[in-house]
Amino acid sequence: MVTQPEPxxxxxxxxxxxxxxxxxMEQALLFTARPLVGPGIALAFLAIVGLAAIAxxxxxxxxxxxxxxxxxxxxxxxxxxxxxxxxxMGPAVGAKAITLGGALVVAAICETAGALLAGGDVVxxxxxxxxAPESVAAPRIFIWAMMAALLAGAxxxxxxxxxxxxxxxxxxxxxxxxxxxxxxxxxxxVNWPMMGRIAASWVISPVMGGVIAAVxxxxxxxxxxxxPDKIAAARxxxxxxxGVMGGVFACYMALKGxxxxxxxxxxxxxxxxxxxxxxxxxxxxxxxxxxxxGLENRNKSLKVLFAIPLVFSAALLSFAHxxxxxxxxxxxxxxxxxxxxxxxxxxxxxxxxxxxxxxxxxxxxGLILFGxxxxxxxxxxxxxxxxxxxxxxxxxxxxxxxxxSWLGLxxxxxxIAIGGVFGVGFFREWYHERILxxxxxxxxxxxxERTRRKVVRRVHIMTILAAWVITVPAAATLSAVLFLxxxxxxxxx
Length: 493
Fold this sequence. Notes:
By secondary structure, the chain is mostly helical. It contains 16 helices and two strands. Helix 3 (86-94) packs antiparallel against helix 10 (299-342).
């Protein structure tokens, strides 16, 4: 005789099944909704930007144009935060010197501080002489040209972030201005010598970054990593390297990061770097000696000695980035505000505080919401970084910017940083192959094994290089189309 389960037992079993189904549905909902959280918060931020612009501008003539421009400027800032900031924090995260969450917090604070405390308060309205100002002097044409340039740059950076390609935000906005200028006044309006220098920087920036990063890594290899007593060598050389880092970053901040607060010449900046670097090296000697006590004689132990300098350098790079590149987001916006309020375009305009706040907050929101994808790419997917290699990348980025400022070259910090990552990776490949050749074992390896030993992932090279090469023409083409659309829809009035 088969016993039937009690009614209560049947009810409990049915309830368990229903709860299990509900739990699965909740998990599925969370899985599908998670990708929508970032865009939702970003849309809320842009809505707040629009409302804030309405409250600040009021009902004056042209207010709607300013509100639309403010929203587009906020969108541009979000994309710069998502794409550009990864170059500063990616190496530190890839080297495991700081967690991803910690990097997001540090970068957000430093980017915001750099934008608000040291961001450029005056910006050229025609993006550093790309377009002759007289060719877009009419306020109506100027406003729509800046609007098209801003939106085109933002859309291109958004696409690049989506496909996983770190691109230059400066080149994006320059391409946007060039395209709108050509659509408005023809090819003769473009400053082609300046565009030639920018095109040259596509090659100069990454090559300089890669070579200098590789040189620093070669010094670390020769003086620390491949010494019989690594820890003893580190006690001698790590304070020197930290002093060099401190001096270079002091020079970098004096030259690029604090231009709004105080202006220094290159010579004065170098003297400031020496004044900071030499005492710092002396002060760090007893600190490194204490940190080195009890460490095992292996490469992994050296991470402890490089971790704090690496995080500090990434924070300084983020501060300087916020101070310099916030103008890419809000410079055209400030120019539009000035043209609407004054009824005329100007060669240079002052950026209002509320416009700078939009740029600063947009950088931070973009970094936190969408930055992790490219941080992982830069930090770990191109090549494997440890603390020493990431230190070389950060130091190379600052050194190249200083050299470029001295030579007057319009370089991209994005290209420099990515070039540095490739540089340390290719140096490792070269070094390992040299060792194998000396041991006469390279030729004996099968082709598959030799390919496996390539520590730089080639799949990312073509994607990144292609994105770099087409950034200016793509942004220019998109901007020209948008300018013609804007003129057709609203320019006639």
